Amino acid sequence: MNTKENNEAKKTEKGKLIEDNGKRLDGRNLDELRKIQMKVGVLNRAAGSAYVEWGKNKILVGVYGPREAQPRHIQNPLKGIIQATYNMASFSVSDRKRPGPDRRSTEISKIISRALEASILSESFPRTTIDIYLEVLEADAGTRCASLTAASLALADAGIPMKDMVVSCAAGKVDDRVVLDLMKEEDNCGQADLPVAILPKSGEIVLMQLDGHLTGEEFEKAVSLAMDGCKKVYEMQKEALMKSVGKVI
Amino acid sequence: MNDMDMVVPGELLGARREMKAGTGAYEEGESVCSAVFGRKDKRSNYVNVASVNGFYMPNEGDQVIAIVTDVDQTIWVTDIRAPSPAILRTGEAPWKVEFGNTSHFLTVGDTAVVRIKSYDEIGRIQITMADKNLRKINSGYIIEIPTNKIAKLIGREGAMVNTIKKLTKCRIFVGRNGRVWIDGENEGICKAILAIRKVEEEGASIDDVEKVIG
């Protein structure tokens, strides 16, 4: 049975994705995040690194640079370039993923670069590049949010000057209810998915995408829910950084 | 150091009317915020944040150890662990170099103690060897340590590095870019490297260093 059929079966077995008592398939409340674990400084050769487990997602990020941008024609004399490369391992999903870049990973690499550009003080190192490699070891919906959160952690670990951390979290619509942090079954069989990334200090939105349909009221509720989720993730980011130097807030 | 001293990027350090942003901090609107993850330190009316990890940002006047990575007719391109390569022009070398004869003096892989002459707003780094104490390195070992450990390795008024020099009978130069040159007898070099790694990894005190060197 392939994944889609499996999801459909799961949904039909229970009848719906949200139980009558308001609990989701994995027992979470509508406004509850999945279990998240973060660790920084996991790669010795990288300038900065982070590992994030977000539900069943497992993401490893390495940051290299700032270093001279190559080829030289891409150099910007006024600021550094942020180049994120998102890659899903071939074993990250139940059906083997064909290795190498595809349309989806190119898009996610681009949006992650853009979101991080809003935070990094790249004017401090002109003509250079900061390379961020994001490897999805296991995927279970929400990898772009988990990757962006992990990338921000790795950049902080590398000592790259930033205006603020970048945190990301998704909200969506499942069984006509607005929920936080969709898991795989909800993402595949739900009605909408809204990943959001913010700079927590200012609340500035640096990433927002919408897949599906939401009414105006639902959209506002989903954005507010995602932003609340981001704030919770931000606290976990801070705690992970402090733990890396043996200190806990 | 206590937990309250540690800050993450974007964290508020204070009001702009009370303090100015030093290194690792930036000013935005009426507030001063941290730009890096590290320890905040307020001195006079400046607040600095010393990054836990970081890369070398060149400052004019810094003495560093450069490794030649490319040679041209009139310049040497060097790596000083900065974001961009540093350029040494023949006019800044301590020798009279004829056009095209650069590799006779320094070639790829050679190392030298140099000084940062300029670091401009578009990231170009110029270095010089035309001063006393600046020279080509012909012997010894070079090791690298994180730039934020340099102050610890040097110690108060050079106490730590002088202790290592005295006990190992080695000549040691600590570049501001985190490269350390050690020269002497093989046994002394090994002991000096062990002591430096102890300082780097564990923040060892002078007593600990004396024990390591024996």
Q: CATH superfamily assignment of chain A?
A: GHMP Kinase, N-terminal domain
Number of strands of chain B: 16
Tell me the span between the first and last alpha carbons of chain A.
47 Å
The percentage helix of chain B is: 10-25%
Helix-strand topology string of chain A: HEEEEHEHEEHEEEH
Low-confidence stretches of chain A: none
The gyration radius over C-alpha positions of chain B equals 20 Å
Q: What percent of residues of chain A are in strands? A: 25-35%
CATH fold-type name of chain A: Ribosomal Protein S5, domain 2
User: How large is the radius of gyration of chain A?
Assistant: 18 Å
Number of helical elements of chain A: 5
**What's the level 1 CATH class of chain A?**
Alpha Beta
Distance between the termini of chain B: 30 Å
What is the highest CATH level, the class of the largest domain in chain B?
Mainly Beta
Poorly predicted sequence stretches spanning 5 or more consecutive residues of chain B: none
N-to-C SSE series of chain B? EEEEEEEEEEEEEEHHEEHH
Structural class of chain B: alpha+beta
What is the count of structural domains of chain A? 1
